[in-house]
Amino acid sequence: CKVLLLNGPNLNLLGMREPEIYGSQTLADVVEDLTRLAETFELDLDHLQSNREYELIEKIHQAMGQVDYIIINPAAFTHTSVALRDALLGVNIPFFEVHISNVHARESFRHHSYLSDKATGVICGFGTQGYEFALRAVASKLKNET
Ligand code: DQA
Fold first, then answer.
1. Domain that holds residue 136
2. Structural domain total, the chain
3. Based on CB atoms within 10 Å of each CB, which residue in 2, 15, 52, 77 is the most buried?
């Protein structure tokens, strides 16, 4: 089975960016750990981080019929992007939404997500471990389906 991991804007700065909020792991560390974990579940993990909304949307379009599950941290696009929501709904691929920080404990503009009501589940506030929880959840969902 195929899983697509998507990370939105500024997550390329992980490890350097506000470490008191986002921790010290870099995105490369996160992706390396997840790729290894995916292998143990016999899942094929593809990853894209982009600061551009259209690149994320194009990647979602390309995933149509190819990818079984999406794990997405839309970063700031969470709170702004109807287009990402429409893309995810358009390809009809189930997805988990992940946030490293507890967005509900932060500024009020972070409390609303354009994706959460359509996500299978939302994980936030567990640091970068949230990605691992999401991948484990994907593995058990896909296992129950087959
Ligand atoms: C984030 C939370 C968003 O509000 C913020 O814009 C991000 C990262 C998180 O992972 O905690 O860039 O999605």
1. 2-145
2. 1
3. 77
